[in-house]
Amino acid sequence: MAEILVAYATKMGATKEIAEAIAARIRSASHEATALDAAEVSSVEPYKAVVLGSALYAARWRPEAVRFLQRNAPALARKPVWLFHSGPLGADLSAQKAPRKVRELATRIGADQPTTFGGRLTPQTAVGFFAKRMAQGSMAGDYRDWDAIELWANHIAEQLVAAR
Ligand SMILES: Cc1cc2nc3c(=O)[nH]c(=O)nc-3n(C[C@H](O)[C@H](O)[C@H](O)COP(=O)(O)O)c2cc1C
Fold first, then answer.
1. In the chain, how many domains are there?
2. What are the Flavodoxin-like domain coordinates in residue numbering (predicted)?
């Protein structure tokens, strides 16, 4: 079992790829890290630290990410936890405020509010009627900033070393 869990909630795969990049970066800093679908994690007890990321849809987190936070809140309160969400597309990639429930849960477990990473919406990956329509528009594209994601993961890896 890996030391560090990077859990994700995705609909169209972009957030999963971000989670996998974060886990890979943490691994290259000599920690065991695994990226898993948040819905498939039954307990966080075995992990020393947890990263959780959700895609943003209509300003909300995916329900499985919110459920993950609710279900595991007592255990997460005893561990280092980092949160992110993936969403903004187009010219304005500014930080997005998490929904109120997520903000409250973050406070409850003692984690910082989620970091925002740009999202991806492309005709090749879009799932569902609205997404496919939006993917034909001017906002479509892959706005994930892999340098920013790596920097953030490095920052986590450094804190994990300091906590050893
Ligand atoms: C119908 C729809 C609604 C969306 N709503 C938001 C939103 O409210 N805020 C945001 O930042 N991004 C929003 N997005 C962009 C997605 O969150 C972005 O494409 C994200 O990276 C998708 O992640 P996933 O591939 O992991 O599901 C929306 C996309 C779609 C298709």
1. 1
2. 4-157
From ligand 1's centre to the CA of 44, what distance in Å? 27
Concatenating the DSSP letter of every residue in 21-54 gives: HHHHHHHHTT--EEEEEGGG---STT-SEEEEEE
User: Which ligand 1 atom lies nearest to the CA of residue 55?
Assistant: 23
Residues of the chain with pLDDT under 50: none
Select from 56, 85, 146 the residue to mutate for testing ligand 1; criterion: most ligand atoms less than 8 Å from CB.
Answer: 56
Q: Model confidence over 38-53: pLDDT tens digits?
A: 999 999 999 999 999 9
CATH number for 61: 3.40.50.360
Identify any residues that bridge with 58 across adjacent strands, giving them in sequence order. Answer: none
Rounded distance between C-alpha atoms, residue 52 and residue 134, angstroms: 26
What is the pairing mode between strands 33-37 and 4-9? parallel
**Residue 79: what are its φ and ψ, rounded to 5°?**
-130, 160
Q: What are the pLDDT digits (tens) for 70-102?
A: 999 999 999 999 999 999 999 899 999 999 999
Q: Quick check: CB of 13 below 6 Å from ligand 1?
A: yes
